[in-house]
Amino acid sequence: MNTTRLFIVDDHQLVIDGIHALLASADHYQIAGFSENPQLVLQMLEETPADILLTDIAMPLMNGVELTRAVKKKFPHMKVIAISMHGENEIIREMLNAGISGYILKNTGRQELLTALDKVNAGETYFAEDITREILSNFSKGQNEQRLTVRELEIIRLIEKEMSNKQISDQLFISERTVETHRKNIFRKTNTQSVIGLLKYAYAHKII
Amino acid sequence: MNTTRLFIVDDHQLVIDGIHALLASADHYQIAGFSENPQLVLQMLEETPADILLTDIAMPLMNGVELTRAVKKKFPHMKVIAISMHGENEIIREMLNAGISGYILKNTGRQELLTALDKVNAGETYFAEDITREILSNFSKGQNEQRLTVRELEIIRLIEKEMSNKQISDQLFISERTVETHRKNIFRKTNTQSVIGLLKYAYAHKII
DNA sequence: CTAAAAATACGTAGTAGCGGGGATTTCAGG
DNA sequence: CCTGAAATCCCCGCTACTACGTATTTTTAG
């Protein structure tokens, strides 16, 4: 029987230990390594190769998307499963593009974890239900997702500086109306409704 | 040898399973029960009593502070250890007031978990290092800084979820006026002027 | 028990933001 | 030269939020 080697990355040691312990009884899975620091993963994988990488999405120093891209570039055959707190649907698409094979939430149990591993190991994919629903509903409208112009990015950054439309218009020597129009377009393009949503979008997409 | 009974509360099943598995080899600790829903804990404890409660802090439906108060009120002899993502330093003080005996972060390992349990079980206290440092460093400058109440923190989190005052009032079953009042007080205490500033404050102070 | 703190609620008025519409100018690229 | 994208500008109306209040009830702490 072939054993499948796993590598776990999560900034919460407790989660690592948890997964570790959960899989102790699953003989065909073996923990090749783990790390709290995503920046160390690449070189660790050189010494202790693995078949499947289980990684958190939101981590300090390096996010899951960057890590996944880096890993897939260096070890194209490796499968990646993302583990996350909530279903951050902005990032999920990024992760899909980065090439993940599965996605589970931290509120899933041992059984679902094993199911996900088995599926991915067999070359299939596994996505937590909540996720697939989100993705599908966003896919249709994801087509007409427009790119933000330079000016719009500039305005987003000023909004982030807590400037009002008036202040922005003064700063850029344009009319307040223009700022409002840009704002409208920004909200439309980013598919957000409030400054808060916009800010999260901006952070998630590294605009700021 | 006496065994110590534990009860685990965390909205992430994976964390529960993790702790569960981690302690499988620790003979003197026995998992009396666990739940993803803090609201069910009180009645579950009646049927399956425990000595130490391990609880997450940030949970939907009911936060760790409320749960701790309720549990300590009904079972005064029970010890409570808080487990949390980050060192949300605003809430730690609240938790201390609520009567916790220990505090660990989710990025602590198996060894530290056992140490914490042993200490608390022996009637002592255990607080993760990061925490004690935070608390102390914030104590000095905390003088002129107004403390946010539990309710206010709750509202900040709902604001962060892009909810309007109306939605927040519906969710908390209070008047929209009350939400407005809380908002005013929040802005005053945090010395911020806009939701954006507030959000940054919240992120900086690890409220979210 | 009593004082203080927190949570609750309301009024009035003003402003900023937002959604809908339409319109003009500029300028690069086919 | 013409088209289309980007940037500019305006109007109307509505809703949400904000800024000044005041005040009651509930909970906590001493």
Largest sheet of chain A: 6 strands, parallel
How much is the radius of gyration of chain A in Å? 20 Å
The helix/strand class of chain A is alpha/beta
Question: What is the largest interface, and how many residues per chain?
Answer: A-B, 31 and 31 residues
Report how far apart the termini of chain A are.
49 Å
The SSE string of chain A, one letter per element, is EHEHEHEHEHEHHHHH
Strand content of chain A: 5-15%
Spatial strand sequence of the major β-sheet of chain A: 2-1-3-4-5-6
**Low-pLDDT sequence parts of chain A:** 138-145
Looking at the chains present, what oligomeric state does this protein adopt? homodimer
Share of helical residues of chain A: 40-55%
Q: Report the count of strand segments of chain A.
A: 6
Shape of chain A: elongated
Tally the helices of chain A: what do you get? Answer: 10
Mean pLDDT of chain A: 82
Structure description:
2 copies of one chain form a homodimer. By secondary structure, chain A is an alpha/beta fold. Chain A is built from 10 helices and 6 strands. The first copy, chain A, has helices at 13-22, 41-47, 64-74, 89-98, 110-121, 129-142, 150-160, 165-172, 176-190, 195-204, and strands at residues 4-9, 29-35, 52-56, 79-84, 102-105, 126-127. Chain A has a 6-stranded parallel sheet, sandwiched between helices. In chain A, helix 1 (13-22) links the parallel strand 1 and strand 2 (29-35). In chain A, helix 7 crosses helix 9. The A-B interface holds A 11-15, 17-22, 24, 36, 83, 85, 105-110, 113, 159-160, 162, 193-197, 199 and B 11-15, 17-22, 24, 36, 83, 85, 105-110, 113, 159-160, 162, 193-197, 199. Chain A binds a DNA duplex (30 and 30 nucleotides) through helix 7 and helix 9.
